[in-house]
Amino acid sequence: MAVELYRPFVIAGGLSGALAIAAYAASAHSGSSHLGTVAPLLLAHAPALLVFALLAPGRMTARLGGWITLLGLVLFCGDLVMRDMTGARLFPYAAPTGGTLMILGWLIIAFIGLMKRKAAA
Q1: What number of other Cβ atoms are within 10 A of residue 10's Cβ?
Q2: Cα separation of 66 and 48, whole Å?
Q3: The pTM is what?
Q4: Which among 57, 65, 46, 74 is positioned nearest to 105, based on CA atoms?
Q5: Which residue, 36, 42, 34, 43, is CA-closest to 90?
Q6: pLDDT tens digits, residue range 1-54?
Q7: How far apart are CA 119 and CA 44, in angstroms?
Q8: What's the CA gap between 84 and 101, in Å, rounded?
Q9: DSSP for 39-82?
Q10: Alpha-carbon torsion 22, 41, 45, 60, what sign?
Q11: What ranges do the domains of the chain cover?
Q12: Measuring CA to CA, which residue among 22, 18, 108, 103 is closest to residue 60?
């Protein structure tokens, strides 16, 4: 039996994992504290995005949660990487906004776990 996946989140999960390893390596060689913070966040959210990829087909709540999580990850990590690269922020409150969105994404996963799924016909 083939498992249906929502491909954007599979791609995002794979990229998140790959970028995590790159951030770990860059942090080890450059001593950047922000890259050292970004790496575990990317690595921790890679499987969350894969969970959303499994849950998203046929579930609008899961698609919304996945996109919220991905946006939060991009804002939070993007802001910290931008600080390392340029010394400037992505925009004011980008990291806290991203962090809040990531928290919301995890809460959506919990909410989906509480919801009853309609029986397959």
Answers
A1: 16
A2: 8
A3: 0.89
A4: 65
A5: 34
A6: 678 899 999 999 999 999 999 999 998 888 778 888 999 999 999 999 999 999
A7: 31
A8: 22
A9: HHHHHHHHHHHHHHHHH-TT-HHHHHHHHHHHHHHHHHHHHHHH
A10: negative
A11: 7-114
A12: 108
Helix (H) or strand (E) holding 95: helix 94-114
Cβ proximity of 88 and 35 under 8 Å: no
Q: What's the CA gap between 48 and 70, in Å, rounded?
A: 10
Can you tell me the distance from the alpha carbon of 109 to that of 121, in angstroms, rounded to the nearest whole number?
A: 24
Q: Which of 113, 21, 105, 118 is nearest to 70 (CA)?
A: 105
C-alpha distances out from residue 5 to 10, 29, 114, Å: 7, 36, 21
pLDDT, tens digit (0-9, with 9 covering 90-100), for 86-95: 989 999 999 9
